[in-house]
Amino acid sequence: MIVLGIESSAHTFGVGIVSDEPPHILADVRFVYKPKTGGIHPKEASQYFVSNASEALRKALSDAGVRISDLDGVAVALGPGIGPCLRVGATLARAIASYYSKPLAPVNHALAHIEIGRLLFSFRNPLVVYLSGGNTLIASFSEGRYRIFGETLDIPLGNFLDTLAREAGIAPPYVVSGLHQIDRCAEEGGRFVELPYVVKGQDVSFSGLLTAALKLIKESRARLNDVCYSAREIAYSAIVEVSERALAHTGNKEVLVVGGVASSPVLRRKFEVMSSLRGVKLGVVPPQYAVDNGVMIAWAGVLLLKHGIQVKPEEAFVKQRWKLDQVDVPWLP
Ligand code: FE2
Q1: Which of these, 66, 132, 201, 324, could form a disulfide with 110 (CB 3.0-4.6 Å)?
Q2: What are the structural domains, with CATH classification, of the chain?
């Protein structure tokens, strides 16, 4: 089976093509929108996607050495994500599916992050820790779906790190050689300053931490490096704490860390310590596939289509708030 996947939920317009048996990547094309200032501007990002969509498709087909007629299906991320961005990918996918009469797989973006990670590590049933600019959640499979065992009550971890970097004047917050600017800044710090650590039940919260950290910086009451160090220690520790408690409850024997923030080597070390103490396997998706890409959408498309899940092009609407626990996962026991 050869499936083409389209990702456009946030800053990346990606087109991936994969085949299965054995799983194989035939093409992985990405166009990444980088805002000149601030976070993602939905209109600007979607215009950037529109300008590059046809080139991304052309290049993916050429890299894979296939024609659209060779495809067994098309997959598209329909949510969660930013509406105007999602609609660009959805429009392209609907057009291909209806013009060429190809099955169309509706992919939940979070599920795609998980499934590419499961494939990479050959994990059977992991506890999932999904950390990105737009999402922060802990999930585990049970009775047909991934169930949420904790999430952020306000801003996601990636958004927290990016905003802190930007407001502290060490933007752009983009990861430089594998390190987020906050991790980089924290390397020169080491004196712990008091900041709010908020874990409520199984949920985390970063907005109070962000406000307090920025206040310290603004009032010059602590060195920037020490604030970055303390803030990231608190944020990462909160994530590891709720992950460990979820593991104790679910009994999963594997932990899979997915999403753009998964690439932090500092966070990874914390997960390594926790996993070895609990005697569970750890899989941290490498940066190349931890960030958004079309390959993961194509792979999720393979799984969906193999299990007969498809959508009519005229009914393939984007769902900006499509939650992971609303998606049936028939391929897991
Ligand atoms: Fe993502």
Answers
A1: 324
A2: 2-113+290-326 (3.30.420.40), 125-289 (3.30.420.40)
